[in-house]
Amino acid sequence: MASATQTATDHFRGEDFATLLDETLGQDSGFEGSVVKGCVVRLTDDFAIVDVGLKSEGRVALREFGPPGAAPEVKPGDVIELYIERYEDRDGSIVLSREKARREEAWTNLEKAFEANQRVNGTIYGRVKGGFTVDLGGAMAFLPGSQVDIRPVRDVAPLMGVPQPFQILKMDRARGNIVVSRRAVLEETRAEQRSELIQGLKEGMILDGVVKNITDYGAFVDLGGVDGLLHVTDIAWKRINHPSEALQIGQPVRVQVIRFNPDTQRISLGMKQLEADPWENVALKYPSGARFTGRVTNITDYGAFVELEPGVEGLVHVSEMSWTKKNVHPGKIVATSQEVDVMVLDVDSTKRRISLGLKQVQRNPWEQFAEEHKVGSIVEGEIRNITEFGLFIGLSADIDGMVHMSDLSWDEAGEEAMKNYEKGQVVQAKVLDVDVEKERISLGIKQLQEDPAADVLTGVQKGAIVTCVVTAVQANGIEVKVDDVLSGFIRRTELARDKAEQRPERFAVGERVDAKVVSVDRAARKLALTIRGREQDEDKQAINEYGSSDSGASLGDILSAAIRRRSADA
CA within 20 to 30 Å of 487's CA: 181, 437, 500, 530, which one? Predict the structure, then answer.
């Protein structure tokens, strides 16, 4: 009997316990995932024990109450909100989370802000692939790299750990995803600033800005909501080939509004306008004829630009660069950044132009040569070039003198005489003429010796009868020599009085003939001769001496008498 009663009692107790347990678990299991308030009872090495009003106490990891390595910011008696992760773990304790409680509260607030399209405050604290992580008061959000700023940001370090506003682009609580934008906040603020700036913008205003972008022709400056163009020519008074030489992206600059078009809202800016114009009184500082030292800033096909001071440049035209190098590119005479001495040739302040000369600060080598070598002096040099008309002899490192082929030899023809010389040969020559303006020096080699025909030329006059020796027979006449030193030529029509006798072939080389001098070319040492003229003169003389054909005597009779008379005298 007792055994049966005991069995029934045990069965009741087991059924009652199971029922009570199911009821209790069914009721308490609803706490999981909820946020409750609890009081900190005590602290252990790793946990804070909290009474949340349930049948057992819960525990929260101390690391949730402070950053790693720092003392937890919690003490017994503190009342805090906690998130119930599990009602009972295997040890019978309630597992709580303070971080998740904060997150749940943050999500609730963020959803309200998202629906109201309001900004939220957060802090960028980490970098992930494609962007950054943002702490929105306990809820973690993703900030894409493209949404950090209006323009690309090279260094995000200054933005890390700084509380700032963000705009929620989208959020999904079920997935725990939040995407925010810092750029949207900046654009909205920028639009407000742009409107205010445009309304009060006037030409001549001085503004502070930041270099936003750099191009080949200038830089775009962010004035705080609106961009302006700073052209490369308005960056500085001095020459700037590319804006990157003076500016960098992100650099703060102070600029002046040069032009503003309200219709197109285009703004032209200038930096150099805030500095004194170096071209003021430039004519007084750089008078014509004065010498200065400058730096070569740019080289072109037509010359080189030389900076006399920052913002003031002059042009040395290629024709003013060297006395001797005429057809040479300026880059072979000077180099960029080279310091050179120049002379001011002309100043035009209105057009902001200064003409400079490089060769003018050096002595004219032609004038120097003329002073040091008078006409008739003897010079020595190397044959630098041989042309079809003569030799060029180097007289210094920069200038040459020319020996025309007619001044090579007294006896040989020019072409023949040139065969006796070769390039690189050192020769002596006499200075015949120096033309400084035309930059020409005439030299002669044959003039080093006395002209062998000088005495003959002195005694030969126009109209004189000379004895010649035939040296060559040509179709149009004959070549002759007078006293073996003076050349002459008798044309075909001048070979005889009678046309039938005007035949060059009737003369032989070496034959001696008498001829009359028609003209004397003393420079070329040549005579123009005529046999016909000599014969005509003899006829006239015979007529004068022996009678006239008008008296009845024939010309043949007169000439016969003259011949007999001469024979008798002989």
Answer: 500
